[in-house]
Amino acid sequence: MRPQRTSAVLVLGLVAAMAAPAQASADHQARGHRPEATVFPTTIGLPNGFRPEGIAIGPGPVAFVGSRADGSIYRADLRTGRGAIVSRGPGTPALGLKTDSRGRLFVAGGEGGDARVIDIRTGRVLASYRLATGPAFVNDVTLTQGAAWFTDSTNPVLYKLPLRGGRLPAAATRIPLTGDLAYGTGFNANGITPTPDGRGLIIVQSNTGRLFRVSRTGTTRRVNLHGESLPNGDGLLLHGRTLYAVQNRDNTVAVLRLNAAGTSGRVVRRATDTRFDVPTTVAAVGSRLYLPNARFTTPPTSKTPYNAVSIPRPDSARVHNDDL
């Protein structure tokens, strides 16, 4: 979820661009067919100048997209592609996003060094947290049973919001990262997700392309990727034991198969799309992935157009457990 040096795009996957549903509907009607009600738009327009970063989906077929410009939250109906801003930002960014079953949206505040929790029905801020007092880049967030976890790309820590009984805490807990992960120049810990067995966390380090398993006490262990790496690694999405990792400047989604503990994994394919323009994060509905285009290579203005796109979810190849 950040600009870096441009790197070459590695296209090993194949994703077909789909026609807009409005055009598909017109074609069906011209041929005398009824429109296909289950076809969702594959490109969702966002407000000009919005500068999207994070995306979260649900409850229901709705997406929430955060603005890097001012922290506003945009709500889009995935069935129609239409939407509106539901929560005006505080002036600091809205980067990583996650929703929970209680109708709350957890928001990472980037260089603002903060986090907040929003009621997705009303847009009201339920709680705000000052996570860092000095330089910081609170980049992404994930939810586990009993806690919300935030990465900081500048400081080697995780921020934990204990959610005992689902209640929001008065303050966050700062957990230092120790072990294999060493912070260097550039953006460090970025995307975060639980391990397949739910006992730990996985984070990607953007500047090295390395993946790490993190215990809930902050001990890090490098994930064995069998010679592969994830340069420009950004948002992560776990589905069973399949991990989708966005490589933003590479305009690529890497598909990995992990072991249950999240200590070993293999890149089984990579997917791209002609509509990708530096996608940053990823969320899923059914058989499709949704990614906002941050357009880091395009000078941002108040009139710059932005969007989010969806692609078919790449199926991971089968990898034998003994190979992980």
UniProtKB/TrEMBL annotation:
Biased segments, Basic and acidic residues type: 315-324
Region (Disordered): 296-324
Biased composition (Polar residues): 296-307
Residues of the signal peptide: 1-24
Keyword Signal: yes
Keywords carried by this UniProt record: Signal
Protein name per the record: Superoxide dismutase
Source organism (scientific name): Actinomadura rudentiformis
Organism lineage: Bacteria, Bacillati, Actinomycetota, Actinomycetes, Streptosporangiales
